[in-house]
Inverse folding.
């Protein structure tokens, strides 16, 4: 290459780097028409690459972060349980060591190692009176002790968790038939947004003794994106019924969340210490003997979905309404214990008697079947003995927002 | 837990915090460039997304072994990207024709349908011209224009001298210009 050509190349490369660096073009006397046209070509080339879509960027990032957390978790599991408690940084190791020494010294002081013998006996007396009257714990654990606090709130912040899940109930002890109000919070602890494909997630009520679910709320149908650091909440009311509408036995129960899907990836939703509560023994307010059964067997098809209202059981304290719902077009049955659909089909309903005001019949308990669903609504107030007609409206089934109306003659 | 080796290198050595935080920052910094480079090489958005995912998954797997005293993170990452593209072409036996990305995916400021059609045709022609370059020329042009690397960084990745890289860019751009001017006429 001649010296002149080397100079031209140098001028071209310098101008090219300026252009790629975003600097405005200068009228460089070293550039002849040939080089200027080459630089215009370079401008074309600069525009040839594509920009990644935000969706791709977010999805890939979530996947990579999930892998990092899984690696971290695996690494922690490989470590012994003891070393897991040892901080990595020297400063924290020193702080931990000092704290440990203080605790040991405190214990030794407490048992009287550093005191004369008569002081040790006083200490024993104090230990039996004062310190033992400890305040009740505000958290429940899966141990056998009964919960004593009004609210249970626990959180899962496992190493493999991109979403920190916490859940609580409004009480820790319920009379039979009383609604259990559940609130769940999901916090995105990752550094980017996370999209949950079906929100809210699947939530199961578990019996502590058997560790088996007694009722499962299927996943919602919404897609929910949670920004980094954002917390979303949802609440559910459980009427203490299983999927067949029968009241569950008295005893201890806890809540479990199922992992969620995020754009093809599974994200863990662990409640490190699942909130627990007690259902007290005794007759439920609405579980009285069936006084009379009204057979209905009336079908309504709205929006392509058929609801068959089968019967109403009247009790001294309320009523139970039974319906069968043919599978909607998007219905997908998932075998398991209990079996469920891939999304939530619970149905709110309202009723009125003899043309009066509509009242809330609650949301149905759902038993998912291969060929459809059984829904049960529990009306928790007694129906007047002289009521002759009931209007019963199913105001939506899952995401299907139509209304199915039935008129039922209550008198024989 | 992955550990990072500190060193005099730019990005990684300076970044403190957990692996997730560090890798997350590097991801934010390099994803657009890697994606641009890969899309420049394969010419198809979906394929570029697939291969970019592979690049970052490989980078994550090998992150523990990355030594910032030996190479800049960008050099290391683009070496992975380059090898991933080469593996892709090797797997498909021969280099595919440079595809035309559909016009909708091309960044443009609210262009008219006519402008989009012209732009789409221009891209098709550019890719056609690029296919006339040799393998090394194509590599260098991609790294230069898509990832905006310096000639020294490109030289580090390809094992060439910096002046050699400059000469190849100079010649390749003029060659492309000649082919592209022919199309414009």
């Amino acid at each position: 290459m001649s010296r002149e050509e080397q100079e031209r190349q140098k001028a071209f490369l310098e101008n090219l780097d300026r252009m790629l660096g975003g600097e405005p073009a200068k009228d460089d006397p070293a550039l002849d028409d040939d080089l200027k046209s080459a630089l215009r070509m370079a401008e074309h080339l600069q525009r040839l690459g594509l920009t990644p879509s935000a969706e791709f960027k977010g999805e890939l990032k979530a996947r990579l972060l999930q892998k990092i957390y899984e690696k971290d978790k695996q690494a922690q599991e490989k470590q012994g349980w003891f070393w897991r408690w040892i901080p990595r940084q020297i400063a924290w190791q020193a702080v931990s060591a000092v704290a440990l020494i203080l605790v040991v010294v405190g214990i030794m002081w407490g048992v009287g190692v550093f005191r004369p013998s008569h002081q040790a006996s006083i200490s024993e007396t104090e230990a039996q009176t004062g310190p033992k009257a400890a305040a009740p714990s505000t958290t429940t654990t899966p141990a056998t002790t009964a919960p004593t606090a009004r609210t249970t709130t626990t959180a899962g912040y496992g190493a493999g968790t991109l979403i920190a899940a916490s859940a609580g109930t409004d009480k820790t002890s319920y009379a039979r038939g009383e609604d259990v109000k559940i609130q769940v919070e999901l916090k995105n602890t990752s550094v980017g947004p996370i999209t949950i494909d079906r929100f809210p997630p699947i939530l199961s009520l578990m019996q502590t003794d058997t560790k088996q679910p007694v009722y499962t709320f299927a996943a919602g149908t919404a897609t929910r994106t949670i920004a980094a650091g954002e917390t979303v909440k949802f609440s559910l009311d459980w009427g203490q019924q299983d999927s067949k509408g029968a009241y569950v036995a008295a005893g201890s129960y806890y809540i479990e969340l199922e992992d969620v899907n995020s754009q093809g990836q599974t994200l863990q939703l662990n409640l490190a210490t699942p909130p627990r509560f007690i259902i007290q023994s005794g007759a439920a307010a609405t579980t009285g003997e069936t006084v009379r059964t009204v057979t209905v067997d009336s079908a309504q098809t709205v929006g392509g979905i058929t609801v068959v209202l089968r019967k109403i059981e009247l009790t001294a304290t309320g009523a139970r309404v039974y319906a069968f719902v043919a599978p909607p077009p998007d219905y997908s049955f998932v075998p398991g214990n209990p079996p469920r659909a891939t999304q939530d089909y619970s149905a709110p309903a309202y009723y009125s008697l003899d043309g009066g005001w509509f009242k809330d019949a609650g949301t149905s308990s759902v038993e998912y079947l291969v060929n459809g669903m059984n829904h049960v609504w529990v009306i928790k107030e007694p129906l007047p003995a002289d009521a002759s007609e009931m209007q019963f409206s199913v105001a939506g089934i899952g995401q299907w927002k139509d209304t199915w109306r039935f008129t039922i003659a209550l008198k024989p | 837990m992955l550990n990072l080796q500190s060193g005099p290198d730019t990005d990684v050595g300076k970044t403190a915090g957990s692996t997730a935080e560090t890798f997350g920052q590097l991801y934010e910094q390099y994803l657009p460039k890697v994606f641009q480079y890969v899309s420049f090489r394969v010419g198809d958005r979906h394929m570029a997304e697939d291969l970019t995912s592979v690049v970052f998954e490989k980078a994550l797997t090998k992150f523990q072994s990355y030594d910032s005293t030996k190479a800049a993170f960008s050099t290391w990452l683009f070496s992975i990207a380059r090898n991933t593209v080469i593996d892709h072409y090797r797997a498909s036996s021969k280099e595919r024709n440079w595809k035309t990305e559909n016009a909708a995916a091309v960044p443009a400021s609210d262009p008219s349908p006519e402008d989009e059609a012209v732009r789409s045709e221009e891209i098709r022609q550019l890719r056609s011209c690029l296919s006339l370059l040799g393998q090394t020329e194509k590599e260098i042009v991609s790294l230069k224009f898509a990832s905006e690397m310096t000639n020294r960084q490109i030289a580090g990745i390809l094992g060439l001298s910096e002046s050699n890289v400059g000469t190849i860019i100079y010649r390749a751009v003029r060659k492309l210009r000649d082919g592209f001017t022919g199309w414009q006429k």
Q: What stands out?
A: Chain A has four domains: 3-46, 55-129, 152-279, 290-409. The first strand of chain A starts at residue 152 and ends at 156. Residues 116-160 of chain A have pLDDT under 50 and may be disordered. The interface with chain B takes residues 1, 9, 12-13, 16-17, 20, 34, 37-38, 40-42, 44-52, 56-57, 60-61, 63-65, 67-69, 71-72, 75-76, 190-192 of chain A (CB under 8 Å).
